[in-house]
Amino acid sequence: MLLRLLGTDTRNNGSPTLFASDRDTYVVLGWEVLERDSRHIEIPHRLLTYLEQGTCLGTLLRDTGHGTFVLTGEPVTDPAALARINPPTGERTIEVPIGKEIRPDDVSTHC
């Protein structure tokens, strides 16, 4: 899997970080959600500013009420990708589909 760095909202050289992959997916490094399985991570709202224009994360985002979202995706297992990302302890990397942003106020989506 080839990755292209889109942006990071990091402190202390950690995560969260957003990548685009050559598989038409986003790869997201975020904080572990301890009460959930390895498919769940938590990211700050601000990380979404790095999404490519006209796209969104193709997964449900659950707002925690304190400036972060919890999201679900498939754990990244590709050794080369994980070597590049090098997730710190307490952080996980998941892959989610790239969704198309569809806004109610976008006249191009209405016939």
Task: Name the descriptors.
111 residues, mainly beta, single chain, nine-stranded antiparallel β-sheet
Overview in brief:
The protein contains one helix and nine strands. By secondary structure, it is mainly beta. Strands 1, 2, 3, 4, 5, 6, 7, 8 and 9 form a nine-stranded antiparallel beta sheet that branches.
Question: What do you see in this structure?
Answer:
- It is globular and about 45 Å long.
- With 111 residues, the protein is mainly beta.
- The termini are far apart.
- 23% of the residues are buried.
- Strand 1 (3-8) and strand 2 (17-21) form a beta hairpin.
- The protein has one domain (3-100).
- The longest helix has 7 residues, at 79-85.
- It has one helix at 79-85, and strands at residues 3-8, 17-21, 25-32, 40-44, 55-57, 61-63, 68-72, 74-75, 91-100.
- The protein has one helix and nine strands; from the N terminus they run E-E-E-E-E-E-E-E-H-E.
- Strands 1, 2, 3, 4, 5, 6, 7, 8 and 9 form a nine-stranded antiparallel β-sheet that branches.
Strand content range: 35-45%
Structural class assignment: mainly beta
Number of domains: 1
What shape does the CA trace take? Answer: globular
Question: Which percent bin holds the helix content?
Answer: under 10%
Distance between the termini: 38 Å
Largest sheet: 9 strands, antiparallel
Q: Low-confidence parts, pLDDT < 50 over ≥5 residues?
A: none
List the total number of helices. Answer: 1
**What order do the helices and strands follow?**
EEEEEEEEHE
Mean pLDDT: 90
Oligomeric category: single chain
* Rounded radius of gyration (Å): 14 Å
| Total beta-strand segments | 9
